[in-house]
Amino acid sequence: MLIGRTAELAELTAALDRAAAGSAGVVLVSGDAGVGKTHLVSTLTEEARGKGFAVLVGQCAELGESMPYLPLTDALWTAAQEGTAEAGEVKAALAARPVLGRLLPDGDGGPGAASELGQQQLFGAVLGLLGELGNDRPVLLVLEDLHWADRSTRHLLTFLSRVLQRERVCLVGTYRSDDLHRRHPLRPVVAELLRLPNVTGVEVRPFGAGETAEYLAELSRGSAPVTADVVERVHRRSEGNPFYAAELYSSGLDDRDDGTAELPSGLADLLLSRMERLSDGGQRVVRVAAVAGRRVDDELVRRVSGLDEAAVGEALREVVSHQLLVPSGSGYTFRHALLREAVYADLLPGERTRLHADFARLLAGLPEGTRGSAAELAHHSLAAHDLPAAFAASVRAGREADRLGAPAEAFEHYERALELWEAVPEPEAAAGTDRLRLSLTAAQVSARAGELRRAVHRLRRILAAADPADVVLGSQIRGHLASYLSDIDEDEESLAVAREAFAMLPADPPTVERAHALATYARTLLYRDLDGEMPAFAEKAIEAARAAGASGAEASLLVTLGVHRESREADTGVAEVFARAHELAAADDGNSMIAMRAAFHYARTKFDRGDLAGAVRAADEGVKYAVDKGIAWSTFGTVLRSLRFLVHYTSGDWTEAGRLADEFPVQVVRSTGGHVSAYALFLDVAQGTPTVEERLRWIMPLCPRDPFINYLARGLAAEHALWRGDPDTAAAHVRDVLGTVYRDTVGAIRIAATGLWAEADRAARARAAGDEDAVRAAAEAGDLLLDVARSVVALDVHGHPRTWIGGEGQGWLARAEAERRRVDGVHDAGLWRRTADLFTYGDPDGGFVYEVARSRWRLAEALVESGDREAAAAEWRAAVESAERLGARPLLAALRDLGARARLAAGRRARAEPSGPLASLTGREREVLKLVAEGRNNREIAAALFISPKTASVHVSNILAKLNATSRTQAAAIAHREGI
């Protein structure tokens, strides 16, 4: 029975209903220990099952950071057991995702996984599993006791909270709010997640006096009336905490207790008073369970207790009947974590040490590779003061965590082993490596956990301590150090260290180690090749890699060489270089990230050269590879997914582009989500969807600290402002982008062209208003923008002559030239025709479909002005057809406006004939009257309707006569009254 939690349950069930409707959500349930979070969530799981949900429930345990993904493992293992409603679906989903299967107690946990990618693979697999289950029926995933969550679980919670958007998934997490001290690692995570719109917090508060009375009546189950005095004393002493209240009531509180006694120190004494009712055997079992942790395996507790089979069975039955332990799967769980803590704290030091030693002895006998056994063994051995065993188990636990893609936990285990190194005999034999190499491994996992500066600091210390005679180790250390230095923008030191890494190894005989050192130096040199040594160096390095049989290094070098040549040479065969690199790397799972890098550049170069069909195939294949390997959310996996969207957007397949954009989050708070969300703006702006404003609200705060997001988002925000008739805001966005590092990149051509559109519109307004100063200012700004576009085409970021530019870049440059003429009030049909032709990429029916249509809009406008109405109508109709098919509403509105003003829309539906004072006006006169009502003078009317000022004057005179109006103001008043 649920008491006093109506509002909290309603909020949780509302989240369930939203998830069932396809709107994923996360609810974080907080409250003090014992306040009833678990009972509330248990009620929710019952309701969820009644609604047809698949329910997965997992619990964290108080093992520090030593067992990564414990609640996920618990949820999957429990749900997959025979007899559960979800067993079949979960087993099938796990079978399709081996990376998750390795988490389970019966998983192989074997080597061979690419540890550097493990966390990305696991996160992708979890997301895929939840999505797959949600396709059949909605899913409720509950992660309990997150205040004990390991770092990898916290990362997983953050990932799912940000990524889950339209999946039919409701994620509920519980945590103790009173445990979240200022330095608690969960505290900043909760603060960050609660800022997300799809994350809500539910606080479970203590009972009021009436709820405590109802609760105690339920506990008594009618066996004895609960007096008002008892209720008052229990409520006062428990302060409304249901667990405290239950314990006080169950401990035999009676009328002789006047309630003035101090509440027992903490809850421990109160809990221990219940345990003291047990037999000696029962108390022994509870003490053993307390040392094991929140959950204890049935077999382990039986063996460690030291009781015979009959006695331990009887003791367990007694403990369960008193509800200190609750059966759970193949073992038992404390009814509340505080029970376990109180019992554990009450153990004598020697007793605690002996029990930890007993557990360590049993765990040491388990088969090597048993999931989680090394971490538990390290924990118990250290508590038992068995330092050699703790050392060896810590090394094993680090390797196991690394295989499972939990680099943060791996680092903690390695760090503990390194701390114990001097305290154990023959540490090298126990670890299977020397201290420097173990420290190097710790630095690598630290970097994979995102602690790059910590990794750099450690590698510098390792380098100082390394034996100069061990050149292989020295090269490896320098190779990693160079990579990490590059990642934190320490470019000069990175280049110098990378050069040392390969220079210290002899060229003969060729070795794998030197091949990788060469590949690292080549990649470090890629964007800092001041002396032009890259091509020759990379070619020789490739030969060395082949001679050494280092396929991964060879693939990496091929990609680096291809990227370098592409920036310096008109190399038409560069796509084949990337294809070869991908083939080499994909042959070995250990090179998956190199394969992804190659796949991205292969698809990108197809796209840049206008081969849209080839780019679609390459991007689709690259994304499939990423999904199959479980690394769709890795750096290159994310970039490839963005590129795939961009290819479909460019080719005019906006249905598929829209489907892909639906997977890009809108509510983003970090750069990773901001990158893909900014790409979705291409489609949102072009279609004029309401999502534009929402995306921009979330993305804009990220712009100051991420130049790429700033480039994408502000460039598209400028277009959005222009479609809304706000060239001033558009110009401001353009200035912001061109004030960053993107000023010298190819992407600046598009930004400059957009800025010229804004300046042309500003000049037109100023010209109509007779503001010559503003016209000159727009012209000067236009000259600067055109110089930007031309200079980028002429020189690369290093000041070298640019040997080629793709079809899209040529199209944007042509558009910049045409827009610059428009700044001067000239609609140059030749320039706009060239722009449209360049955007076709040589395929009259293909190319960049949207930009072809936008260019035809301007071309039609220029042709009307030049008097070639037939050609204008043909271009206009082609543009309208494309805009209608794409759903490009802003462009379509502009085309319809042009068609109405220039009378290009032959065959359009006839409008209803006006009545009243306007009945005598012709259609053209009504158009002129509308502009008069807007305050336009004759010159402005002429420009808008592509007629001469004299003709405009004649129309105005006729209108005044027909309306019997004595002035333009009176005519405007009539127009407003008639609604035009």
Structure description:
This protein has 980 residues and is mainly α. It is 65% helix and 4% strand. Strands 2-3-4-1-5 form a five-stranded parallel beta sheet, sandwiched between helices. A three-stranded antiparallel beta sheet has the order 6-8-7. Helix 7 links the parallel strand 3 (139-144) and strand 4 (169-176). Helix 13 packs across helix 16, helix 25 (491-503) runs antiparallel to helix 26 (512-525) and helix 45 (923-933) packs across helix 48 (968-977). Mean pLDDT is 86; it is low at 110-114, 258-264 and 907-913.
Number of helices: 48
Distance between the termini: 66 Å
- What are the segments in which pLDDT stays under 50 over at least 5 consecutive residues? 110-114, 258-264, 907-913
Please state how the strands of the largest beta sheet are arranged side by side. Answer: 2-3-4-1-5
Shape: flat
**Radius of gyration using CA atoms only:** 35 Å
